[in-house]
Automatic annotation (TrEMBL):
Residue spans crossing the bilayer: none
Keyword Lipid biosynthesis: no
Gene Ontology terms describing biological process: tRNA processing
Signal peptide: none
Protein name (Swiss-Prot/TrEMBL): tRNA nucleotidyltransferase
Occurrences of domain HD (ranges): 264-347
Keywords carried by this UniProt record: Magnesium, Metal-binding, Nucleotide-binding, Nucleotidyltransferase, RNA-binding, Transferase, tRNA processing
Cofactor section: Mg(2+)
Gene3D superfamilies the UniProt entry points to: 1.10.246.80, Beta Polymerase, domain 2, cca-adding enzyme, domain 2
The family this protein is said to belong to: Belongs to the tRNA nucleotidyltransferase/poly(A) polymerase family.
Length: 477
């Protein structure tokens, strides 16, 4: 291997300091992994820097921190043999070079001290195994035993060692391979792809939290469909997201077919990714049709139907989040809401858009109405240019209507113009169902456009409604 020096990559003063400190301690040090990979990919300057020491990474971290301005704190993780320093805008992680061996039922390795070669052997992919020397005598020397540079050039994900061993030892690497292929728009080399398919069942020993972390990164990529196609191709998808996998396939009865909702969903996710970086809105796009698999029915007169698939899908969101140990909080409720309402603007765009229907949409969607419209616009996947133009124009009409109605009627995050206390005082009532009936009647009258969303008109309406309910205003008693 020819000796190539890349001092430009490590021109930041921190690298020389680490190298000089290493020499003082009698150890060697190298920057390795993502920092080196991203330098050669010209992806900007990463702020996360992994330093491997041939010796104690923790001792090297302590010594480096003592020389830095402000003497930053060293966070030590003894179980992992690592130490972390946060300095300015950098996060430096130090670890001693090691070799690893694995038990069949765990991804937690038995770790021993090792050489740089041992440490590079244990790396997940060739493009993450490249190292740059920080030692004064060979500062900037690239050590690339597995031709990672060549794989970068060929846009290829490849394991340093036999892929079956790499993936079986730590099955999370299967998801990482797919994630890197998605983020970098690389291909996974055929032998490696086959090994993922052969080892797919091993994913079951990985914690749900780690799997979700990789799913998030796939979803936040420029074109998430790459990752989900690879998960489908390797057989990982039904093990991780069976609800999504169940959408795959087309049935035909009596010459009537429905579209393949799996491939449609991937188009929707790619579409929405062009317009939002919100991972939870991207989750909503991924899950917006999951209710179609359990609700699919064929009727001779009308063909295929998916009645109430939005409602069923929103219930499935909770089960999916719970199974994957994702947050069961406002994030989950947002995804549920988007799935539940995903067809509402579509129905509006197909019919004559009435102010009343728009008011109800804005009332129900609240502060998420813009997100809902973004989701529905992403749902346009027709390849017919005329239809696509028509649907997009219709959605523009709906958006304009929303703006007009919102400016006039202030329905978003609706607050009743007449409070329960006012109703109680007006009719000398104690807390009772009559108050709820009157409040609901006021809300309906506003949504239907019978009265404006203003206090005086709503108060007058309240008095009339009370009269019909045989309630007497306090002043008449």
């Amino acid at each position: 291997m020819t000796q190539e020096f890349h001092k430009k990559a490590i021109q930041h003063p921190i690298f020389k300091l680490i190298g000089d400190t290493s020499k003082e301690l009698g150890v060697e040090s190298y920057v390795i992994g993502g920092f080196v990979r991203d330098y050669f990919l010209k992806r900007g300057t990463p702020k996360d820097i992994d330093v491997v020491a041939i010796g104690s990474g923790i001792e090297l971290a302590k010594k480096v921190a003592s020389k830095l301005k402000g003497k930053p704190q060293v966070s030590i993780f003894k179980n992992f043999g690592t130490a972390m320093i946060k300095h300015q805008d950098l996060e430096l992680e130090f670890v001693g070079a090691r070799k690893e061996s694995y038990h069949r039922d765990s991804r937690k390795p038995v770790v021993e001290d090792g050489s740089l070669e041992d440490d590079q052997n244990r790396r997940d992919f060739t493009i993450n195994a490249m190292a740059l020397a920080l030692n004064p005598e060979n500062f900037g020397l690239l050590l690339d035993p597995f031709d990672g540079l060549d794989d970068l050039d060929k846009k290829r994900i490849k394991t340093p060692l036999e892929p079956n061993i790499t993936y079986s030892d730590d099955p999370l690497r299967m998801m990482r391979a797919i994630r890197f292929a998605t983020q970098l728009d690389f291909t996974i080399e055929p032998k490696s792809l086959t090994a993922i398919a052969e080892n797919k069942e091993r994913i079951k020993i990985i914690s749900k939290e780690r799997i979700v972390d990789e799913l998030h990164k796939i979803l936040l990529s420029k074109k998430p469909s790459i990752g989900f196609k690879l998960m489908h191709q390797t057989g990982l998808l039904p093990l991780i997201l069976p609800e999504l996998h169940a959408l795959q396939g087309i049935e035909e009865i009596e010459g009537q077919r429905h579209k393949d909702n799996f491939w449609h969903t991937l188009e929707v996710v790619d579409n929405i990714s062009e317009n939002t970086d919100d991972v939870w809105l991207r989750w909503a796009a991924l899950l917006h049709d999951i209710g179609k698999a359990p609700t699919k029915r064929f009727h001779k007169k009308i063909g295929w139907t998916f009645h109430a698939h939005e409602f069923v899908g929103s219930k499935m969101v909770f089960k999916l989040f719970k199974r994957l140990r994702m947050p069961l909080n406002d994030k989950m409720k947002f995804v549920q809401k988007m799935v539940l309402m995903s067809s509402r603007p579509i129905i509006l765009s197909e019919d004559h858009v009435t102010d009343s229907a728009v008011r109800r949409l804005v009332f129900d969607a609240g502060e998420n109405v813009d997100d809902l419209m973004t989701l529905c616009e992403a749902d346009i996947t027709t390849k017919n240019p005329k239809k696509q133009k028509k649907y997009k124009n219709n959605f523009q009409i709906v958006r304009q209507k929303i703006k007009e109605v919102e400016e006039r009627d202030h329905i978003r995050n609706f607050q009743p113009p007449v409070s329960g206390e006012e109703i109680m005082k007006a009719f000398n009532l104690r807390p009772s169902k009559e108050i709820g009936i009157i409040k609901e009647a006021i809300k309906e009258a506003i949504l239907e456009g019978e009265i404006p969303n203003e206090h005086d008109e709503a108060y007058q309406f309240m008095l009339e409604k009370g009269k019909k309910m045989n309630l007497k205003p306090e002043s008449n008693k």
